[in-house]
Design goal:
Blueprint: E1 2-5, H1 10-18, E2 26-29, E3 47-50, H2 58-66, E4 71-74, H3 84-89, E5 93-95, H4 102-118, H5 120-128, E6 146-150, H6 154-165, E7 169-173, H7 179-183, E8 187-188, H8 191-197, E9 200-203, H9 217-222, E10 227-231, H10 240-248, E11 252-257, H11 279-285, E12 290-292, H12 301-320
Parallel strand pairs: 1-2, 1-3, 3-4, 4-5, 6-7, 6-9, 7-8, 9-10, 10-11, 11-12
Helix pairs in contact: 4-6
Bound molecules: nicotinamide-adenine-dinucleotide.
Nicotinamide-adenine-dinucleotide (NAD) binds next to helix 4 and helix 6.
Length: 332
């Protein structure tokens, strides 16, 4: 079973090699994204394995099909970057890792909120410079605050459990209501109520054509003054220019992002010492109340182990014609 991996980093190689001790798979690792510039080089593999910022569009899929590729294996949960209609049309299966330690992402979302609020990132640097002043480090108690959680699937649910531990009041919006969360005291409300009533809003829904830019000028206008917005889901849920305007007017009091709409040119790369041409991210990072991490919410030992294990068993199952152990892993 031969697999070409795209957008790989040393840690991808490490975890996928660990799961292939018996060498039943043959690997080709590429650092570059999968895209029209490289797809012609794909040859003699059963599957391509891609990540969040590979753009697997119709043009790419057509070439993959002509090269005999049978599977597009996403080593992530979201699949918004693959043209599923084209995959169906060209008879290529698409699989993903529907669940890998949702706690990894939920805990990172809480870490972002705590850091942004209590400014530990600033305090760390300050103390190292022998500046022991507290001016500018004022935060607020999370206890008693209302958090609006958009999407209460695996990650949103884990985030609710974490936030509950801090004594927060939880509002949620999802197409499906989770009974366990309701028993835990989470109140499902419509989006208008969630926007109006939340001190903090955390996004945990997938990106779809319908909810692209759901955080925009109109929704921001409904929010409380000084609202804190967290996005660990997908960058395009937020209209970045709208949040920049709202940060300038102080409508948004804090913004923490692990994902960014234009992230594919930046994230997972060491660009230190180079000129960043993306003025939008530069403007975002210039705000003292904006915290950006580079799509690292998933990045734990536990999650990477599960990602590698599930991806390989998805590919093996599809190639050998086995019933998938988790039907949600098969997208097409
Ligand atoms: P999930 O499928 O378990 O849950 C998603 C939930 O969102 C479902 O309950 C669904 O009904 C709901 N939903 C769908 N459309 C919605 C909408 N318009 N408004 C509100 N809710 C909606 O997925 P998950 O495992 O919880 O992951 C959620 C998202 O987190 C993924 O789609 C992915 O984009 C993102 N993610 C990010 C990272 C990271 O490292 N930053 C890692 C994994 C996943």
């Amino acid at each position: 079973m031969k697999i070409a991996f795209f957008s790989t980093q040393p840690y991808d190689r490490m975890f996928f090699n660990r799961e292939n001790q018996d060498e039943r798979f043959t690997y080709q690792f590429y650092e570059t994204h999968l895209g029209p510039h490289i797809v012609q080089a794909v040859n003699d593999v059963d599957a391509v394995c891609v990540f969040v910022n590979d753009r697997v569009n119709r043009e790419v899929i057509e070439v993959l099909a002509s090269r005999g590729v049978k599977i597009i294996a996403l080593r992530c949960a979201g699949f918004n970057n693959v043209d599923l209609d084209a995959a169906r049309e060209f008879g290529i299966a698409v699989c993903r890792v529907p669940a890998y330690s949702p706690e990894a992402v939920a805990e990172h979302a809480m870490a972002l909120l705590l850091t942004l609020n209590r400014k530990t990132h600033k305090a760390y640097n300050r103390v190292r410079e022998q500046n022991f002043s507290l001016n500018g480090l004022l935060g607020f108690n999370l206890h008693g605050k209302t958090i609006g959680v958009v999407g209460t699937g695996k990650i949103g649910k884990a985030f609710c459990r974490v936030a509950k531990g801090f004594g927060c009041k939880l509002l949620a919006f999802d197409i499906y209501e989770d009974e366990q969360l309701k028993e835990m005291g989470v109140s499902y409300v419509d989006m208008d109520t969630l926007y109006r009533s939340s001190d903090i809003i955390s996004l945990h829904c997938p990106l779809t054509p319908e909810n692209k830019h759901m955080i925009n000028n109109t929704s921001i206008r409904q929010m409380k003054d000084g609202v804190v917005v967290l996005n660990t889901s997908r960058g395009a849920l937020i209209d970045t220019s709208a949040v920049i305007d709202a940060l300038k007017t102080r409508k948004i009091g804090g913004l923490a992002l692990d994902v960014y709409e234009q992230e594919e040119k930046l994230f997972f790369k060491d660009l230190s010492g180079t000129i960043i041409e993306d003025d939008t991210i530069q403007r975002l990072m210039s705000f003292p109340n904006v915290l950006v991490t580079a799509h690292q919410a998933f990045f734990t030992e536990e999650a990477l182990t599960q990602i590698a294990g599930t991806t390989l068993s998805n590919i093996e199952g599809l190639l050998l014609g086995h019933e998938p152990s988790n039907k949600q892993a098969i997208v097409v």
